[in-house]
Structures are given as structure tokens and as C-alpha cells.
Design brief:
This protein is an alpha/beta fold and 207 residues long. The protein has one domain: TIM Barrel. The chain has five helices and nine strands; from the N terminus they run E-E-E-H-E-H-E-E-E-H-E-H-E-H. Strand 7, helix 3 and strand 8 form a beta-alpha-beta unit. It is globular and about 50 Å long.
Length: 207
């Protein structure tokens, strides 16, 4: 993490931001402005945005500029993702977005304590760095990436810890989708508390 990063979160390392259609999970199909923060130490070997890992590679951006850019788009919904966004204090950013009338959706591995105020939290736990327990009961959705068959049992461990209204999704890792999607279909048919999430933005060829 950059040494010059202020603790109040007024400056954040933004890798990229873009307006698109959410491709995964509960809000799939909805227009949203994505804010991808740089910096991650979770280290998923199959991560498709490894260029986000080193926060020092991405410019520190004023929260006010982030909000101004978000307001340029018709949808007043923002997805904060990464990297791992909870590396940073997100109170300043989420307060500014809320004041501008914007809904805020968080995508996180849950590896760090929650900061900020969100309308929706997507928890996507990773084997490489376990989520903190406090995030389990407040997640709106649990999205488990399925890379191999053992991930089903692993997913159930987290399903037992989230709240009873949390949406449960199994999503094939993109490079293993041909192999794992049939297994996920079978699993969901046998365990209908789960639903299937697909990376529809990749099929649509959009960000």
C-alpha cells in the first residue's frame, strides 16, 4: 500500500472506472458504474485482474473526482470492487456517494474488516485468505467461485455462516467453466438453496 495514502480515505488508488452492465450475481443485468481499487494481497492464482494487485501502480484519486465521474452516467448505482477494496477506509467514499444519491454495491473477499455504508454486500470468500467472521451475517449474497469439485463442500461451510436471507451463488471460474458448469448445474438441482451465477459480461464482450 502506498505510504502517502491518507487514513481518512479521501484519496484512493483507482485502477480503473467504467460504466457497464453488472455481469455477476444478484444484480446481474443492471447498469452500474464500476470503481476498481488497486491493491490486493489475497492472491488468487486464477484472478483475471492481477494487474490490480499492486496499489502503487495506480494513481491516487480524490473521492470528490470519483463521485463527479460516477454522476456523469444515467444509472445511480456504483459497484466498488478490486483488488480488495476493504484494504482501505471506505467511509469517506461511501458517505460522498450516498450524499449524491447513489446506491453502493460492494464486492469483497471479506478478508478485512468492513468500513463504509453499503446498500448491498457481495461476499466472495477465497481459500487464500479467509474472510473475517463479522462480515458473514451482513452479506446480501455469497458468491463462491468454483474451480474444482472440492469447492462445493468449501462453499457449504460459508453458507452455514451467513444470514438466512443471504442469496447463495455458485459461479464457475472462467478458465474451468466447460468442466465445472455441468457439475454446478447438477449440484444446484440437488441443492436448490443455491443458484448459478455466470460471468455474463464476458459472453456479452463488455467490461
Amino acid at each position: 500500500m502506498q505510504n502517502t495514502l491518507p487514513e481518512d480515505g479521501s484519496l484512493l488508488p483507482v485502477m480503473e472506472s467504467f460504466y457497464t452492465i453488472q455481469g455477476e450475481g444478484f444484480h446481474s443485468g443492471k447498469a452500474a458504474y464500476f470503481i476498481r481499487l488497486g491493491g490486493c494481497d489475497v492472491g488468487c492464482h486464477w484472478c483475471d485482474v492481477k494487474e490490480s494487485w499492486d496499489a502503487a501502480l495506480h494513481p491516487l484519486t480524490k473521492v470528490e473526482d470519483i463521485v463527479t465521474n460516477a454522476l456523469k452516467h444515467p444509472s445511480k448505482a456504483v459497484v466498488i470492487t478490486g483488488g480488495e477494496p476493504l484494504l482501505y477506509n471506505l467511509e469517506y467514499l461511501t458517505s460522498a456517494l450516498k450524499a449524491a444519491g447513489i446506491q453502493i454495491f460492494l464486492e469483497t473477499s471479506g478478508a478485512y474488516p468492513l468500513s463504509g455504508n453499503f446498500d448491498w454486500i457481495c461476499l466472495s470468500p477465497k481459500k487464500f485468505k479467509a474472510p473475517v467472521a463479522a462480515i458473514m451475517p451482513i452479506a446480501g449474497e455469497l458468491k463462491v467461485i468454483v474451480f474444482n469439485a472440492s469447492d462445493f463442500e468449501w462453499a457449504e461451510q460459508f453458507a452455514a455462516q451467513v444470514n438466512e436471507n443471504c442469496k447463495l451463488y455458485l459461479q464457475p471460474e472462467w478458465s474451468k467453466s466447460k468442466e465445472m458448469t455441468p457439475k454446478i448445474i447438477k449440484y444446484v438441482m440437488e441443492n436448490p438453496k443455491w443458484e448459478i451465477s455466470l460471468q455474463t459480461h464476458k459472453f456479452l464482450n463488455i467490461p
